[in-house]
Design brief:
The protein is built from 1 helix and 9 strands. It is of the alpha+beta class. It has a single domain, classed as Immunoglobulin-like. Strands 1, 2, 3, 4, 5, 6, 7, 8 and 9 form a 9-stranded antiparallel sheet that branches. A hairpin with a 4-residue loop joins strand 3 (57-71) and strand 4 (76-86). The radius of gyration is 21 Å and the shape is elongated. The protein starts with a helix and ends with a strand.
Length: 158
């Protein structure tokens, strides 16, 4: 009886250890806004993509979408893809960063800074360990500081 309990306990410990190791070594990235370039227009603020994992990532592609924007004249625009580019980074080593610039094409529709509300989504697809493809989505909403500067803050997404 003691041998069966010992085998079961060892199996459980092994499974927990493998699962924990997998979680630690999974590829991870983060995105955060960089410096504010125009206090009235958050779309001019570049974002920083950081490889937070233990292995390099490659084949990085980014898709950005405007969830909604409302300017001070109450002109509203929703659900459109935005042009964006990263700094020609096809590989990103651990702890390294690259810039992401968003080029909003909404201004041809008469929407101009300053904005009352804005939300964007950024999806990043990448590959790690030569076989592991991953996609992560980050959402941000515009917040105005007490000094009147518009910046992006993350929204918890499911």
């Amino acid at each position: 009886m003691f041998k069966i309990v010992k085998v079961i306990f060892s199996a459980i410990i092994t499974i927990v250890t493998l699962y924990t190791s997998l979680l630690v070594f999974l590829p991870r990235i983060s995105i955060s806004p960089s410096v504010i370039l125009d206090p009235q227009d958050p779309f001019k603020t570049p974002f920083i993509i950081t490889n937070d994992g233990f292995f390099k990532i490659k084949d990085i592609s980014v898709r950005t979408a405007l969830i909604k924007v409302i300017d001070t004249n109450n002109t509203r625009f929703e659900g459109v893809g935005l042009e964006s580019n990263i700094n020609d980074q096809q590989r990103l080593r651990p702890s390294k960063q690259t810039n992401l610039n968003i080029h909003p094409n909404i201004f041809i529709h008469g929407i101009k800074a300053p904005f009352k509300e804005a939300e964007i989504g950024i999806a990043v697809d990448f590959q790690s360990l030569y076989f592991f493809n991953k996609s992560e989505v980050f959402k941000f909403r515009m917040a105005t500081t007490t000094a009147g500067e518009a910046n992006w803050i993350p929204i918890n997404s499911n």
